[in-house]
Amino acid sequence: MSGASDGWKPAHNPWLIAIAVTLAAFMEVLDTTIVNVALPYIAGSLAASNDEATYTLTAYLVANGIVLTIAGWLSDTIGRKRYFLICIGMFTVASFLCGLSQSLGQIILFRLMQGFFGGGLQPSQQAIILDTFPPAKRGAAFGVTAVATVVAPVLGPTLGGYLVEHATWRWIFFINVPVGIVTLFVNAYLVQDPPAAAEKRARGLDYVGLALIVVGIGCMQIMIDRGEVNAWFSSSFIQIMAVVAFLGIFGAICWLLTAKAPVVDLMVFRDRNFAVGCLLIGAVGALLYAGSVLIPQFAQQVLGYTALDSGFILSPGGVAVIVLIPLVGLMMKVVQTRYLIMFGFAFMGAAMFYSSRIAPDIDFRTLVWMRTLQTAALAFLFVPISTVAYLTLPQKYRSDASALFSMFRNVFGSVGISLSTAAVTERTQADQAHLSTFMTPLRQGYATLIQETEQTLRSLGRAASVVHQQAVAQTYQTYTKQAQILAYSNVYQYVALLAFLVVPLCFLISARTAKAEGGGH
Fold it and tell me: 143, 123, 118, 130: which is closest to 29 by C-alpha?
């Protein structure tokens, strides 16, 4: 089998290489969601508040977002295989240290370290896949990588919930150690640097570009992650982060476009398919992570599910993706790729709109079905988008392209989580204000409900002096729950609208590319 780099071919089976590098990426992506369910346990164990414990997430996302952008430069400077192995080894060490942490400061420091080295795994995985497989085989190879990108965020809450309920929160980090050690040795044996990758080393250090990226991306991630906690732009801290993030990112773009040896080569975006692919994969990231948050959050906060039970709602969706990805790979041979992507976003929009039909008495099976439909749509998106994005891209841009492609997915994913959570809070408050206008004795329905509740309470033997107060309290709880349900329904409608709005972007994919990749139909 020919490789993708000027006739070079790997010494080992390409599919073994694909599985090996995907295992490393799976471990890292899993860590972005597995920690979420453990935050209350971490806070209690380390004598911290829940708000303080969320800095363990912020630290990881900040370091991860920065490194994702410059991973291509680091890979070229250090050597791709060497950099990949360093990332695997140090991510494993950082995971072990996180599990041993005895204070909040320690775990934040080690999470920074974990995010810094974990950020290099996804771009390196993508670049290795690109060089290992020729264009005709990349669609199937990206099907393997989709297991890490799509399935890991789905399984993270389930595995995390199981570990914290049956062991301790420290095992969400310790579990990475044996996997990391095996992955390190397997990749050290299988992975090779092709000649073209070896020749790209020593780009030099662009201090200005690097500094602007660190400031811009770092402040943006802090703003995104801490915005909900700090009441967004009513907080001077968030305002400062937003201004500094804008200045940093805008300055970085201007510098990188004019510098002779930029730390990230933005000329990669001159390839139209890659530029459109980044926008589409960003939309996929936002939809994936928003969906992964909304249903478990609804199940726990409104329906009273445990972390483990809410995680089980997500798991069948992962199975659906694994089953569908090979079928999508076969369809790509006979259907234009852009049509598959359009169908995927339309399918996602329909699934999100269906999910807006949540109700107070919704059962576990219906929740599972809703999330399975959402996740199944991802099978029509990740592999086709990844294939199209790199199909016409020159080999010299692969390192930077892989880093930027992963960065778009992760950053938009963070935005999706923050905006969906903020929207739920805002809509809950708005719906409560609306429903409260009906909570007056002048409304016949309200008065009747109070009377019926009072009668029920009297039949249960409650004291007559407190029956009215208890009836009003129970009614208020019902209204509050209904406001929350309406809020989640509204947000699902917003997400559905976003998915539908992305569909026309697929027409920007080159028709020539779509025809060559899709089989000419």
Answer: 118
